[in-house]
Amino acid sequence: MACLLVSPCLAEKTEKSTMAYGARLGAGVNSVISDAEREIYPSHGGFGGELSFDVMYKISQKLYLHPAVGVEYRDFRAYEEGNVSADCGWGCGSESWKGDDVNSFVYLDIPVMVQWRIPRILYLEAGAFVDVLLLAHEEDARPEKYRSSRCYDDKQFGAGVTAGLGHEFSSGLFVDLRVSFQLTDLVDGDRHCLTNVREEFEMREENGEYHTKVVDRHEEYLGGDYYNLLKLQVGVGYWF
To answer: Cα separation of 168 and 38, whole Å?
Structure first.
């Protein structure tokens, strides 16, 4: 029987066959979840984006398997300015700087999710992911001689869980909202170097001259036990 109207005869592309292939572009925000007082990156939050190539395998009328392989970019930055002098220390010198401290990363992201569909309304999906660090770049606004050395490394491999919801149009276009939580630490190594040295001074006058003396000095550990990542992302994609 011929269709009188085109739109009622159109079905979602992924319902027509057992296997479908597509691409997705996502963008969102990242937040570092930690018990540390000191930030391991320029800020505890940043922005990112991802381009992935997706596969949809039909298990039943409502249940699908949804794996993907993507390239993800993460960016953490914070504005910094300061000055220093060898004579009087921080905050009173003639050597100054200002600019953004930036840590940027490129990851290979591989999520595998199970998707449950309410046809023509929305779909829910959840699963797990692994990621591999491909590239890391660090920019520091301070002059090199005033930079503090890092005693930890960015972890090469990560794993976590992800969940989301979305809607697929009859044309094959889809939009989604996805949240991911990385269970593994973002950094590796001896993090106990993340300390802050606190000193108390006493000033005395002798023969008309003022002298300072350190009366108390101790190191306070500002690192944490965990450095996880929470990621919220909005995406748009297409099934071919």
So the answer is: 42
Q: Which residues, 6+ apart, have CB-to-CB distance to 173 below 8 Å?
A: 236, 237, 238
Average pLDDT of the chain, as a whole number: 83
Report phi then psi at 144, rounded to 5: -55, -35
Q: What is the pTM of this model?
A: 0.78
User: What local confidence, expressed as pLDDT, does residue 3 receive?
Assistant: 41
Q: Is the Cβ–Cβ distance between 58 and 18 less than 8 Å?
A: yes
Band (235; pLDDT cuts 50, 70, 90): very high
Delineate the domains of the chain, giving CATH numbers in brackets: 15-189+226-239 (2.40.160.20)
Does 7 score more than 50 pLDDT? no
Quote the pLDDT of residue 10.
38
Q: Which residue has the higher pLDDT, 188 or 94?
A: 188
Mind spelling out the 3-state secondary structure of the chain? CCCCCCHHHCCCHHHHCCEEEEEEEEEEEEEEEECCCCCCCCCCEEEEEEEEEEEEEECCCCEEEEEEEEEEEEEEEEEEEEEEECCCEECCCCEEEEEEEEEEEEEEEEEEEEEEEECCCEEEEEEEEEEEEEEEEEECCCCHHHCCCCCEEECCEEEEEEEEEEEECCCCEEEEEEEEEECCCCEEECHHHCEEEEEEEEEEEECCEEEEEEEEEEEEECCCCCEEEEEEEEEEEEEC
- The answer to whether the beta carbons of residues 126 and 155 sit under 8 Å apart is no
